[in-house]
Amino acid sequence: MRGDWQNLVWMLRDGGGLSPLSRWKVAGNVRRNLVPLSLMGLLVVGLLAAPAPAPWVLAVLSVPVLPRALVLFWETRKLVQRAVAGQLRAIDLAVGAARLAGTAALRAGFAVAVLPFDALLAADAIARSTWRLLVSGRRVLEWSPSGGPVGPASPLAHVVHLRGQLLAAIALGGLVHVLRPEAVAVAAPLVLAWLAAPLATWLLARSRGVASLVATQGTRRGARPPSLST
Fold this sequence. Notes:
mainly alpha
């Protein structure tokens, strides 16, 4: 993410002779970095100020959920076509469809459960890149690998790793309780999911097979469980 923002600043300064397509790719990477922050901002506005918070929140959550639902539909459609052509037995069709549905639900649920973490990660990347490029001029080549070994092994380490998300969830829950009591029922499932995220990442870290499914949940190279190196 820091590289995306550094590329954007570099491109805006002199362009570096980039083609229009390359400029579009850089802009696309930056746009994807802003998605978690935008979704969190919309959730906060919806819970604290929207006239109807429930539809607002559902509409916001459809952004990470809908693409996975479309993939599920497309893959299930291909299974049905194979079954109609006699290439797949009915039992295999049922098992395959169930597996696809389970994978899609897991990826969508995980994307929602770690949304505050992704937003804080993006905010940190933007702040660091801006400071280093425009102010300090230092450590601009400091990178974290996009892959690597599974992260902290103990449940407590996962709590520490996601401490920012936990604090954000508690803060938002408190604000809703004080400023918008009628929206508590809408906010509660989200807050509980965010508070349970350390347990989810710990379980995923212990189950490499499941973790590999979630690690490929997005098209971005950074869309992976927060227990992995970022």
